[in-house]
């Protein structure tokens, strides 16, 4: 019911410790056409679905969204259309216009609930495709998805506009369970910029972005003041690490600094917690998860893609720490590879070395 | 019944309903000086980081004025479309590097909106607004002062949050990360840090923190309050050392440190008054007693006088008791003082005076009505200072009366048990059992006892159990409210009190209108219900409701100290700090306890924006 998607990753990244320790060079490669071809070869099936190799080969709305975004960035319209077609046929099976979040090779959709970040990534990719290829049909589809999202998962709570992680199952009394890493800031800004003739009340998306920054300032826990993967927001605006989930910073929340950077944010305040975690590791492997507020770390090291995010965060926090990002391994999984490419894109956007 | 609430109510800012406060003007203030826009992946625009470098010469011939316009007004979509259009015209064309650099030496960013948020305590909102401004204007740096203010305020919040949830090590970590957060101008946090060490049993470090405060913080009042705080954890020797340091170290001109010296004496007084009010604490020494009397008389402290009255009543020094109850009643008339006075006079055999003392409250206060029974019910053990109905002259009656006079409620149950081996239970006896069980905080059994009394009363001849029909009483009862309770009503009242104690508030509120009780009794139960509801509202942080419920209760009966404190904390949490502080101050002036001192100091701290 609740998409805790990184669970299966634990253990999968263990081999990276050796890679990181070997001291191989250096910064991640920029994202370019060659990088996209390699990505598509590894994770994109001919029918148009992105395979999460770290999670038993399932597909999900998030993966489709990332795939679509990378295809636009690489200018590969053929791949884009295959992914969009597959997404419509297989995931957009709900009456409310949202996307079912998980699909398994055996049996298809295995959880009809939506994952709001998946919907957001897809809508954003569609908008970008509409601009890039001058194709209004993509924009129309994006707007339909945004309207569905606004109805189902944008809610006013404690004086803020916030994002439910999925339509069902994230209200506990008057407390909401939120996922800070579902705030895909650059996407929210693109939505807010839509003219009212296309999207009624785009202002709500700007408010959502604002509330995201507020929640990231409120929701800081433990020694490093990291955001949790899952956050509880009470009716008075108070925040806590959510019960009922792993109380940690980890595979979800690592995307927080990535999205902020992609949106052009540079305030060191928002990057410092992640840079501190990297700095504390002293050049050794960075732990993949940190329990909150306790601070217990796992033996599992951050993947290459996560290291790329830390490198970005350290640069923006001006922490003085340089994170060495090993090259993507031959068997690098879908999530790590995606994070690595998005980090490269963010760095390129900000005009800093990837 | 409803509650001495010993815990502190949320002292952090948590109760505030913080509206989302990023003002549009903050975001739009710099629309004339737009900064770098991060583009979405794939659109490669290089951003010139140098501020104020002015427009760079365009190396090619394409007209980019529209592009610059879109960049300036922040219309990303159109800007991207324009970039695509220009690229189509010239595939070799690159967007200008200074697209987002302020084109003219525009005005600097006005920090006022951020400071407004900071001064409103909206630190996360301030952070968000600053980040957004930095995104729009990368060349802008917030002032060091603004960032320092935020860092310290957040550090202080973090420390308070950890302290409120008793995560003591986190308190210490937060202070280490942000030492400014525990400076003299944030005294409450400095106390919390010392408290964290004390709670972790690192008493030497706790002492060091307190010592730092009383030697470094200049205000005499603050040093004094610190010693009060420290007295909770430190030995008398350490407190004495702190007092000496606080009275002498680093004096500043214009501060009078004599009040620091007197702290030890006041602490002793507080302990004395506490001991006085505690029946289990035993008798005070002659010197202590004399001191307590002196202090109470000097302050005309009615609560203290009532405590003294009961102290003497327990010692069977009824004349002394009478004097103190009378003083209390003279300083601040109350049914509590009247109750004591009636019982003391009754014990002295001055029944007429006792009835007179009760007259103003008769029919209005169940407490007084109960006490008056000791002077109106004919069969009574002489000299009894006990409360409540008696069981008549059965064997064991004197033992029961003696137990009641001692406030010995276990003894009361034992006496009744013995009486029941000789005779059949009566309604009055069962009712008395109910009251004693209530005093022993066994409400479920009490409710059963009252129910049994109710059943017995229904079978007993009415006349034998109708109290207070003497001519003297009737002459006093000339007001409509002054209807004495029938035994049935008395039992119903007892059951209601017992149900209150078991927490059956909803059920009781539902049944109350149909219950056979006197208007006085109903009013008292209703007042208790309101107090219970106010306590629940407090737990749920519905502070407005707390005030509403307490106001409604105040219509029925005067507000006791514990509920006034509750009212104060509700005001505090609603940020009505001046009212909260004034109320706490009034309570503390009447009788200064650790609870009231803490309330005053926490509120004062908050008022000064810690």
TrEMBL record, chain A:
<comment type="similarity">
    <text>Belongs to the glycosyl hydrolase 8 (cellulase D) family.</text>
</comment>
<dbReference type="InterPro" id="IPR006311">
    <property type="entry name" value="TAT_signal"/>
</dbReference>
<keyword id="KW-0119">Carbohydrate metabolism</keyword>
<keyword id="KW-0326">Glycosidase</keyword>
<keyword id="KW-0732">Signal</keyword>
<dbReference type="GO" id="GO:0008810">
    <property type="term" value="F:cellulase activity"/>
</dbReference>
<keyword id="KW-0136">Cellulose degradation</keyword>
<keyword id="KW-0624">Polysaccharide degradation</keyword>
<dbReference type="InterPro" id="IPR019834">
    <property type="entry name" value="Glyco_hydro_8_CS"/>
</dbReference>
<dbReference type="InterPro" id="IPR008928">
    <property type="entry name" value="6-hairpin_glycosidase_sf"/>
</dbReference>
<dbReference type="InterPro" id="IPR012341">
    <property type="entry name" value="6hp_glycosidase-like_sf"/>
</dbReference>
<feature type="active site" description="Nucleophile">
    <location>
        <position position="117"/>
    </location>
</feature>
<protein>
    <recommendedName>
        <fullName>Glucanase</fullName>
        <ecNumber>3.2.1.-</ecNumber>
    </recommendedName>
</protein>
<keyword id="KW-0378">Hydrolase</keyword>
<dbReference type="InterPro" id="IPR002037">
    <property type="entry name" value="Glyco_hydro_8"/>
</dbReference>
<dbReference type="GO" id="GO:0030245">
    <property type="term" value="P:cellulose catabolic process"/>
</dbReference>
<dbReference type="Pfam" id="PF01270">
    <property type="entry name" value="Glyco_hydro_8"/>
</dbReference>
UniProtKB/TrEMBL annotation, chain B:
<feature type="region of interest" description="Disordered">
    <location>
        <begin position="355"/>
        <end position="398"/>
    </location>
</feature>
<keyword id="KW-0732">Signal</keyword>
<dbReference type="InterPro" id="IPR011990">
    <property type="entry name" value="TPR-like_helical_dom_sf"/>
</dbReference>
<feature type="region of interest" description="Disordered">
    <location>
        <begin position="451"/>
        <end position="488"/>
    </location>
</feature>
<feature type="signal peptide">
    <location>
        <begin position="1"/>
        <end position="26"/>
    </location>
</feature>
<feature type="compositionally biased region" description="Gly residues">
    <location>
        <begin position="382"/>
        <end position="395"/>
    </location>
</feature>
<protein>
    <recommendedName>
        <fullName>Tetratricopeptide repeat protein</fullName>
    </recommendedName>
</protein>
